[in-house]
Design goal:
By secondary structure, the chain is of the alpha+beta class. It is built from nine helices and four strands; from the N terminus they run βαβαββααααααα. The chain has a four-stranded mixed β-sheet with strand order 2-1-3-4. A hairpin with a 4-residue loop joins strand 3 and strand 4. Helix 1 packs parallel to helix 3, helix 1 packs across helix 7 and helix 4 runs parallel beside helix 7.
């Protein structure tokens, strides 16, 4: 039976669009947003998608978000906003405190720098290494997979974790401020550390940072209710 996604309310003329709901699922990116919203104290309406059954890769969701990715956010004028950074920026502007991106241009720039470092150097090669190896049977029909590249990508992520370990100079990635950069990196490491990509031996700073993030109440509360393949997504 086809899944039905009911349309949101019609936007009132001249009124700013309002949040209708967030499309949520298992996974590192959806968990990053859940963690972020819990830290913010923001409760939103959710529409849960079964990504293991590829509900996100079929209409009607694919008609809303051609990328087929979660999370995504629907506004009352029909606008769909995908990509975790864009959604987090939206909520940071709606509710500036506690600041998880930053209160000043300098703070925001530093947060975005660390967020970018984490995503490009660790998160992306980690997840691609998983797609092309342990997750190959699930993902081979959903994206172009390069099995021969899997181990190299995992090596690249390990190298970057060792690099980040040497840069940590404080409680959090951005120093004394807990930010969305910490949330993002934690959610990727926490899910994939049980899939053959643990924090490398000798990375004491990164391991201590990981333990600190894991002690925050939102870390446990943001975990998806089911744990496919034993992973915390």
């Amino acid at each position: 039976m086809a899944t039905t996604i009911e349309p949101g309310p019609t936007r009132t003329e001249n009124a700013a669009p309002e949040l209708v709901r967030v499309f949520d699922s298992f996974g590192m990116n959806p968990r990053t947003l859940r963690f972020f919203l819990l830290e913010k104290g923001i409760d939103v309406e959710r529409r849960e998608l079964d990504i293991l059954a590829a509900e996100n890769r079929e209409p009607p969701f694919l008609d809303l978000n051609p990328a087929g990715q979660t999370p995504a956010m629907e506004l009352s004028d029909g606008t769909i906003v995908a990509e975790v950074p864009a959604i987090c920026e939206y909520f940071e502007e709606l509710k500036p405190e506690p600041a998880l991106i930053g209160r000043t241009p300098e703070e925001r720039a530093v947060t975005r720098m660390w967020w970018r470092r984490a995503e490009l150097n660790i998160c992306l090669p980690m997840v691609q290494g998983f797609y092309f190896a342990e997750g190959l049977e699930l993902f081979r029909t959903r994206t172009r997979c390069l099995p021969d590249a899997a181990e190299g990508l995992k090596d690249r992520a390990r190298d970057a974790m060792c690099w980040i370990d040497g840069l940590i100079d404080g409680e959090w990635l951005a120093g004394d401020r807990f930010t969305v950069a910490d949330i993002c990196l934690y959610c990727y490491i926490d899910q994939l550390c049980v899939a053959g990509q643990p924090i490398p031996d000798g990375c004491g700073n990164l391991k201590a940072w990981y333990d600190r993030v894991g002690q925050r109440p939102a870390a446990e509360r943001s975990i998806w209710k089911e744990r496919p393949m034993g992973m915390r997504g």
